[in-house]
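Lecture notes, part 5. Sequence design as translation. It can be helpful to think of inverse folding as translation between two languages: the language of shapes and the language of residues. The source text, in structure tokens, appears below.
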């Protein structure tokens, strides 16, 4: 059985480039986006930085919340994350 969480393609690590990549002490936050794929990057900006969210699912596989749950800090080391996607049309 497949679930469709309706996560936009360009929110998923590997489908966009960084202008300023996410950095934290442990270095795992970037992997959470690009390798583990459990943190997604929205196009909504907060003070010029891209927003991050996780996407929990219910027991039946449907999204708990359509817009996911925003996170602002690395869940592993607690550092605040500030990163920017690269937008080719943004010059
Ligand atoms: Zn970290």
């Amino acid at each position: 059985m497949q679930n469709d969480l309706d996560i936009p393609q360009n929110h998923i690590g590997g489908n966009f480039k960084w202008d300023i990549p996410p950095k934290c002490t442990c270095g795992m936050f970037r992997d959470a986006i690009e390798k583990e794929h459990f943190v997604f990057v929205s196009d909504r900006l907060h003070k010029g930085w891209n927003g991050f969210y996780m996407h929990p699912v219910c027991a039946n596989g449907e999204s708990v919340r359509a817009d996911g749950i925003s996170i602002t800090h690395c869940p592993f080391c607690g550092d605040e994350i500030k990163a920017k996607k690269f937008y080719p049309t943004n010059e």
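The translated text above is only one of many valid answers, since several sequences can fold into similar shapes. Residues 9-85 form one domain.
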